[in-house]
Write a structure and sequence with these properties.
By secondary structure, this protein is α/β, with parallel strands linked by helices. The chain contains 6 helices and 12 strands. The chain has a single domain, classed as BirA Bifunctional Protein, domain 2 (2-Layer Sandwich), CATH 3.30.930.10.
Length: about 240
């Protein structure tokens, strides 16, 4: 069954706006609109998983100095800086859900896109989870399906299933950040410099080939834009949400 998925324009925004936009996509997916978007961050930003205590930030002098937001998804701490982030929002039922999990499927799409761009070396897919208890950063934790280059994690995702929709978002490390010197990106590991826009375009094309679906470039609706602003102010920019744990 052919699907039609909306491809939103690449944008750069604050943590609160980005998380509000991702939640807005979930709401649209619950109404039957499947969407894929790529985005960046207007400043280096820490994001905590939904279940993490906010006190995690206090354990690191670098983390506490950065802007931060709590994600609607689970997982460990992320520092968003030199990366491309994606969000996929799917309505319930076929063709959107019900087959292979979107975690390995989307990572396969990204691996294909990076290969199309001539990324040197080969990507490995994590088979067995490993956890470092001495480091709260997500990219030091390996989850099945994560993508590694030279043994270092360069692609990781988190997912949340709602009753009426599924949301998955993830990060592709373009290069090393001064705030996370222990995490090399694609540039350091392969010697190839890729821009966020290059990877976004290649990933959209690989997604189309993987699924056989049509991607239609469309802007946000006026109602969605208004909802994003409201959620950013009332939820993701508010202490009640960010410091709930």
């Amino acid at each position: 069954m052919e699907g039609v998925i909306r491809l939103l324009p690449y944008s750069i925004a604050s943590g609160a706006i980005n998380m509000a936009a991702d939640e807005t996509l979930v709401q649209s997916a619950a109404r039957g609109v499947a969407s894929l978007r790529f985005y960046g961050w207007s400043e280096p930003t820490v994001s905590l998983g939904y279940f993490q205590p906010s006190a995690v930030r206090l354990l690191d002098s670098v983390l506490i100095s950065l802007a931060w937001v709590r994600r609607p998804s689970g997982g460990a701490t992320l520092v968003h800086h030199h990366e491309l982030t994606y969000c996929l929002a799917m309505p319930p039922g076929p063709p959107w859900q019900g087959g292979e999990s979107w975690m390995p499927r989307m990572h396969r799409v990204i691996a294909r896109a990076l290969g199309d761009l001539g990324r040197a070396g080969s990507l490995e897919s994590v088979q067995v989870a490993t956890t470092r208890h001495d480091n709260a950063l997500c990219f030091h934790q390996f989850t099945p399906g994560d993508l590694l280059s030279a043994g270092k994690k360069v692609v990781g995702s988190a997912q949340r299933k709602y009753r009426q929709a599924l949301m998955q978002h993830g990060s592709i490390l373009l290069c090393q950040s001064d705030f996370t010197p222990s995490l090399p990106g694609i540039r350091e590991l392969t010697g190839i410099t890729l821009t966020a826009t290059q990877i976004a375009l290649a990933t959209a094309d690989a997604f189309r080939r993987e699924t056989g679906w049509r991607l239609e470039a469309e802007p946000w609706t006026d109602a969605e834009r208004a909802n994003i602003q409201e959620l950013a102010k009332e939820k993701y920019g508010a202490a009640e949400w960010n410091e709930k744990r």
